[in-house]
């Protein structure tokens, strides 16, 4: 019997996906999103992204924020997802000390102005790409998510439009995606596009056995997976416990990638926690630096 390619690729990636050491919890959205936006028009063919001019740095390098030297200290990377939608909380997140990496919704309004304001505060930008979840609700993913039941050309157009919508980004991570990140063909498409655009990829790991990181690595994309979710439970004690878990992970492994969201209780904790890190022996690093470190890319590693 000849298996469909989707099943064959899924089997080939399954073993690699099982090596995850950090248990994942389903990602939740406390604020529902407005579905009122039209889908992208697909191109006639699945063309390649324009190649980067010879001798130029890829965007994940060119748009990267400089990483402070480690001097033997562990690094913590904090990614704040869901940026740009709720402007009040977005502004509060932008005001946090950094460098942080802020993941912006592609459907948010006034993105050039918002991203520029964050850059002026020393923060890095990335695309927070909506992807199909088990709820199958546009009210959770936001408009125009990548879906396993869409033709590849449509998903490609959606992703390219989203990349174009957020200026000066270093890469892409997934918003939701409990269905999408289990699908090897869709994640192969994402990996190819991210590679062809010269960007990095962060697997948010919203579901166990995601194949997103595996596909990115196989495509030659500088990539990593998050280690800790800070605020899956919107309870102050839990948030502080996850911040402590982030510190413990960083001390054990030398670096940690944590994801948080611009929510009132999370922001209140971060406003207290972030200013204390340097005195307690940690260094805040942008995502680009930690991804470079985990992929053994010497130019950033030399800054340590």
Description:
The protein has helices at residues 5-17, 59-62, 87-94, 111-120, 138-141, 152-165, 184-196, 212-218, 236-253, 264-273, 287-294, 298-301, and strands at 75-83, 101-104, 124-131, 169-176, 200-203, 223-225, 228-229, 255-260, 283-284. It is an alpha/beta fold and 304 residues long. It has one domain (73-301): TIM Barrel (Alpha-Beta Barrel), CATH 3.20.20. Strands 1, 2, 3, 4, 5, 6, 7, 8 and 9 form a nine-stranded parallel β-sheet that branches. Helix 3 (87-94) links the parallel strand 1 and strand 2 (101-104). Helix 6 (152-165) packs across helix 7 and helix 7 (184-196) packs across helix 8. The protein is globular, with a radius of gyration of 18 Å. The protein starts with a helix and ends with a helix. Mean pLDDT is 86; it is low at 1-12, 14-48 and 299-304.
What structural class should be given to the helix and strand makeup? alpha/beta
> CATH architecture, please?
Alpha-Beta Barrel
Percent of sequence in beta strands: 15-25%
Low-confidence stretches: 1-12, 14-48, 299-304
Question: How would you describe the shape?
Answer: globular
User: Helix content range of the residues, please?
Assistant: 25-40%
Count of folded domains:
1
Here the CATH topology equals: TIM Barrel
CATH homolog superfamily: Glycoside hydrolase/deacetylase
| Helix segment tally | 12
CATH hierarchy class name: Alpha Beta
Radius of gyration, whole Å:
18 Å
What does the average pLDDT come to? Answer: 86
User: N-to-C SSE series?
Assistant: HHEHEHEHHEHEHEEHEHEHH
Largest sheet: 9 strands, parallel
């Amino acid at each position: 019997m000849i298996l469909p390619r989707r099943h064959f690729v899924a089997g080939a990636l399954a073993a690699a996906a099982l090596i995850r050491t950090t248990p994942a919890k389903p990602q939740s959205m406390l604020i529902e999103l407005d579905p009122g936006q039209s889908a992208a028009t697909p191109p006639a063919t699945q063309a390649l992204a324009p190649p980067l001019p010879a001798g130029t740095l890829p965007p994940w390098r060119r748009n990267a924020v400089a990483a402070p030297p480690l001097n033997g200290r562990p690094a913590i990377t904090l990614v704040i997802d869901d940026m740009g939608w709720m402007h009040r909380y977005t502004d509060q997140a932008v005001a946090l000390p950094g460098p942080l990496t802020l993941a912006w919704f592609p459907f948010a309004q006034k993105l050039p102005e918002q991203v520029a304001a964050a850059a002026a505060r020393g923060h890095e930008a990335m695309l927070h790409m909506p992807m199909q979840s088990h709820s199958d609700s546009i009210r959770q993913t936001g408009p125009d998510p990548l879906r396993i039941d869409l033709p590849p050309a449509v998903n490609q157009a959606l992703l390219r439009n989203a990349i174009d919508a957020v200026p000066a980004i270093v890469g892409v991570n997934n918003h939701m995606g409990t269905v999408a990140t289990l699908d090897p063909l869709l994640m192969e498409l994402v990996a190819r596009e991210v590679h062809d655009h010269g960007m990095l990829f962060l697997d948010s790991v919203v579901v166990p056995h995601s194949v997103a990181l595996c596909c990115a690595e196989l495509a030659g994309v500088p990539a990593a997976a998050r280690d800790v979710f800070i605020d899956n439970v919107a309870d102050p004690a839990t948030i502080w416990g996850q911040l402590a878990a982030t510190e413990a992970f960083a001390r054990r492994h030398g670096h940690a990638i944590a994801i948080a969201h611009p929510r009132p209780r999370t922001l209140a904790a971060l406003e207290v926690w972030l200013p204390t890190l340097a005195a307690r022996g940690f260094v805040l690093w942008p995502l680009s630096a930690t991804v470079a470190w985990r992929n053994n890319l010497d130019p950033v590693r030399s800054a340590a």
